[in-house]
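I trust your eye. Have a critical look at both lines of this record:
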Amino acid sequence: MQFENLKAVIDFAIEKEKEAADFYDTASQEESMSGVSEMLREFAEEERKHQAMLEKLEKEGIGKSLDEYKLKWITDLKRSDYLVDMEYKKGLGYKDILAIAMKREESALRLYNSLLENAETEDTKKLFKVLCQEEAKHKNALETMYDDYMAKIGD
């Protein structure tokens, strides 16, 4: 995937974050279990934070904003690597909703890593590193929740 300029990269990433937030919002409204619904709303809010961060970068410029961002390694538990893709349907169980969310974050992480590999400028590389880290954080959090749940039910 090629982009004309850095603004196009940021606009693309903003759209991806909006799509993710919309997915989690829609799913949260369809869930009857209040705990699952709340969890999905929290995921949507995290995606909106990414969107706001990207919009700020676009407005203020990448250099200064990203210089303040601290990159750190996020452990990949690889739990989602062993799950099959599923389609969200109203009424799915907690485990399945977590699995869908993990796969979505895995897919976003894979996309941003691919874009990072093909980035040409240092600013674009830094932007994709930041986006990779944010998606890796979400993936790790979801995989941890999944592991905790599976341990609780005896898996």
Notes: Residues 21 and 44 are 4 Å apart (CA to CA). The chain has a mean pLDDT of 88. DSSP finds five helices and no strands in the chain. The first helix runs from residue 6 to 30.
